[in-house]
Amino acid sequence: MVRYHKQTRILVAIDCIIFGFDGNELKLLLVQRGLEYEKGKWSLMGGFIQKNEDFNKGSARILKELTGLEGVYMEQLLAFGNVDRDPIERTVSIAYFALIDINKYEKQLNTDYHAEWFPIHKIPKLIFDHADMVKMAKQKLRYKAAFHPIIFELLPEKFTLPQLQILYESIFDTEFDKRNFSRKLRSTKLLIKQKDKEKESSKKGAYYYKLDKKQYATNFHAILNLIPNPGNIIN
Amino acid sequence: MVRYHKQTRILVAIDCIIFGFDGNELKLLLVQRGLEYEKGKWSLMGGFIQKNEDFNKGSARILKELTGLEGVYMEQLLAFGNVDRDPIERTVSIAYFALIDINKYEKQLNTDYHAEWFPIHKIPKLIFDHADMVKMAKQKLRYKAAFHPIIFELLPEKFTLPQLQILYESIFDTEFDKRNFSRKLRSTKLLIKQKDKEKESSKKGAYYYKLDKKQYATNFHAILNLIPNPGNIIN
DNA sequence: CCAAAAGTGTTCACCTTACACCCATGC
DNA sequence: GCATGGGTGTAAGGTGAACACTTTTGG
């Protein structure tokens, strides 16, 4: 096979920023680094791209290996290429972000893997440039969530409007008027009201909703307007 | 120096999707590939990342080498990593997109380099996955342009409202009402009306405007609303 | 009966759109 | 004087934000 001569070949890694929601708070999934150097420090889920593996395959493999999760929503964030980002050897990293419903995988994670959920405001010190990655991922999540119904990837099958609002508030670090929020959400036609209520967190109980998956699929790229005054909130 | 063992090292390239505007039409800058295999075919500006070069340095160097351009607005688009995207040897490519004012560099380009501008609707067949890159770049340009004043990067120092409108229409493949368009633009406070007129393209002449650079710098991330019914237009 | 959270409607200001005519000039 | 493109205003409907009270029920 012909090859390009005199060119530098570089390690290519994938790092996954995994956001989760447990009904109360936005969280981030981290692992303790297994490789030498900074071993034991907190890190994003990462791994090297293999010989015959493209990015999608690679990111799915890494997620599976480190967390057991499959079929999760993932999207490429950005490639990070600073020369010294990994002090051991130059490594270019393709950052992916993922959104998952924490409860769905809780047990599996806690028992089989050494991954841990951290509240988004209490992230420990991370290795390399992972803090930059997280920062960018938060920004991108905000941006997308302001215009697209991407957030539903974080929700369990059944959820309440107060939970949904808490999620949005936790992403945008601000508070919304619940009357307007509820009206906006209802007007998207993405939600199907259930007959039963969630009664853990209040005496009156809040109606469960389900996502209308058909509507969601067709409206995934639609531009919604769920956030008041987006210009003030998004960078 | 310690290194990671048993991992695949891969060529990392940068490819630049360069959009330009000449006052009439949105265009794309292409070169004829200089390397063997598909030599002579049309291609984006690309090159391999070098040993001690990060992405920003690399993209700037490649742009400079192939076009002579410097100080151009560039932004990372996405990393492309399909295993067979370069049939010679596996190469991961970090795609960047750039926006430039064609007239500013026209002479330089035509004489010194073998780059050529193609109208966005008349792009020739491109090598590798460059057509995918262009498609994604167009999408991203639309998306950003719908909400942010990024488009001004494509404009000469002095420009007219009709030119600006043509640019937007050429990006969004649609037509806008000039009264509303003009009002929206003026309401952004980004424009400074000049005393002189452009008289090439009409008898009456159209007033020149300049960008208020201070406003532009502070409002670069602001969310504007320049496009009517964005939900119908953007994917 | 009281505390705590859920649920719901209205008004007003502003923004967005649709739409048509006059202006300036070169030929 | 006429053809060509530039420039402007208004009215109507729709959207988005602000705002407060009633309901339910567990204790």
From TrEMBL, chains A, B:
This is NUDIX hydrolase. GO terms for molecular function: hydrolase activity. Residues 3-141 form the Nudix hydrolase domain. It comes from the Bacteria. CDD domains: NUDIX_NadM_like. Keywords: Hydrolase.
